[in-house]
UniProtKB/TrEMBL annotation, chains A, B:
The keyword Lipid metabolism applies. It comes from Melaminivora alkalimesophila. This is Phosphate acyltransferase. Homodimer. Probably interacts with PlsY. GO terms for cellular component: cytoplasm. The gene is plsX.
Length: 351, 351
């Protein structure tokens, strides 16, 4: 039996979406239990033999500063959900709340794994091969050293080996060219560390990849610093939204184009399905002593359920132990200077 | 009369494409002259009263290392084209060749303007407002200081004031959040410099922008370091190509969907037109003592003609003087440490 702790108050829509998703999830997973965390008066209507309400009196706002969420809201639904993981009552926590606050609270309560300087956020982006490319970091760390990028590669490999059931997924280093001589000094050094780790058998290193390779699926995992990852992710969201808008505009221009839209409905529906980011909802916070998954704030019930699925699969396949083992196996990981106390290192929202 | 020097040998297709574009360009611009640079035997067939062949015996390969192109090919078509600008025989040079080599040779021959530490590459990306957002740098500089980003903002403002006929275009700083406290230390410092420059009236600063804002057209100009800009540009190319591929696949799936494609032809053609990157071909190399424009290597004749148009407009509107004046007006530009000699600072290709 796997138990997930769900921050039912987070996200743009709160319990309206999260509870609907929880019900679907329980129907689909007879072996799962849920701890529904939030204001009891909002959650008590939900009756299910495998669900239990865990009260939390406060809610972290979507735009609330990280410091305020961390220091002043000691009874927030986000914090109480993570506490369930820390205290062993749940195997993973899921929240659609403020990313920065979630990362800060998770890090504060759970701490990082031995050998990991900084947790990272990993998400999946659909690619041309019909699968998805896992990209990390997506904004938790805006200044990364080569050692951090190596740690991301190792954690990402553990995650993808669980998600894709592939023991040795290929890691690509995001760069401005495929040749090893490209990029900044730090990126070139990261390339050296990744090659050395591959030689030791800790990861499978594909080499440098460029922005377009995310969609080609040239590598299963793409590692980059959180600034670059965040810009890439938001650029993708922006372009997809613009193209969607253009399609809608052009198909509704006049009677003729509206007729074309009707005729093309199956095609447009198929396209929408293939591009549907809801299928890939649920970013993993990696490198902590406990599993935490982040749903997109604007998730609907289908998307939020997907984040629950992801957390469930991760817990069932013991992702935490896999990450721990991989990190330990990568034995003498070079130490990275801890920049957690650098003022700019607070995790920005990737969404 | 404006004279452009055209590297006719550059790009994936060489003279087949460049000469076709040159002929169209001359037909459309009765006030323009062209210097066709390249191997005479390939260019002599082109007869036009406003065109003249300038012989160059060598060609820089698309994948040729920058050092080799710079040091060993002293008579390359790229170099001879830029030489025409340096020696005053042309007001701008256009090439579809290797970006890294073009930037290195242009920088070596033309030198940078006073007050500019590093030239940058600026291109336009179509946005939802029906216009385009100018983004720089796109890969010439992989490690940028706050001072470099300020210089990009000033040069970008000069470029866009010419392109859009708008005296004070809005500059956005690419970041991981809109709040001024977001981002790395260097980015925060860049924000301070940009705010100070705006207070002095040197630029119009919109504030931080995120990846998706490139498409919203929140700012006319988006400044970022070359690593981030290159990743963003290639991510855009990759996603656009994937969506295009998906559309094609779904519309050719069976007889019914093929019929839908026929009915939808006007819609798909309109969409293609709106997304057509050829319309925005022609990136500006800014910060040099001469105008150089870079066409995409895979450009067809229509796209290459667009790059010629851009160079022509820039020359006609005296972009060089405008950049020089703006940089001089931004008087006491803080000095940036010159990293030109850092091994990693060779310009990678943005395409």
């Amino acid at each position: 039996m796997i138990t997930l702790a769900v921050d039912c108050m987070g996200g743009d829509h709160g319990p309206d979406v999260t509870l609907a998703a929880c019900r679907q999830f329980l129907n689909h997973h007879p072996e799962a239990r849920l701890l529904l965390v939030g204001r009891p008066e909002r959650l008590q209507g939900f009756a299910h033999e495998r669900a239990e309400v865990v009260p939390a009196s406060e809610v972290v706002g979507m735009d609330e500063p990280v410091e305020a969420a961390l220091r002043r809201k000691k009874d927030s639904s986000m914090r109480v959900a993570i506490l369930q993981v820390k205290e062993g009552r749940a195997q993973a926590a899921v929240s659609a709340g403020n990313t920065g606050a979630l990362m800060a609270i998770a890090r504060y309560l759970l701490k990082t794994l031995d050998g990991i300087d900084r947790p990272a956020i990993a998400t999946q982006i659909p690619n041309m091969r019909g699968g998805a490319t896992t990209v990390l970091d997506l904004g938790a760390n805006v200044d990364c050293t080569a050692e951090h990028l190596l740690q991301f590669a190792i954690m990402g490999s553990a995650l993808v080996s669980v998600l894709n059931d592939d023991p040795q997924p290929r890691v690509g280093l995001l760069n401005v060219g495929e040749e090893a001589i490209k990029g900044s000094e730090e990126i070139k050094r990261a390339g050296e560390l990744l090659r050395a780790a591959a030689a030791r058998g800790d990861i499978c290193f594909h080499g440098n990849v460029e922005g377009n390779d995310i969609f080609k699926g040239a590598a299963d995992i793409v590692v980059c610093d959180g600034f670059v990852g965040n810009v890439a992710l938001k650029t993708i969201e922006g372009l997809a939204s613009m193209i969607g808008g253009f399609l809608k505009e052009e198909f509704s221009r006049n009677l003729l184009t509206r007729a074309a839209a009707v005729v093309s409905y199956p095609v447009l529906a198929a396209l929408k399905r293939r591009m549907d980011h809801r299928r890939y909802n649920g970013a993993a916070l990696l490198g902590l002593r406990g599993l935490v998954f982040k749903s997109h704030g604007s998730a609907d019930a289908l998307a939020f359920e997907q984040a629950l699925n992801r957390a469930y699969d991760a817990a069932r396949n013991n992702l935490l132990e896999r990450v721990r083992t991989r990190v330990a196996h990568a034995a003498v990981l070079p130490a990275a200077p801890d920049m957690a106390s650098v003022p700019g290192a607070t995790p920005p929202s990737p969404h």
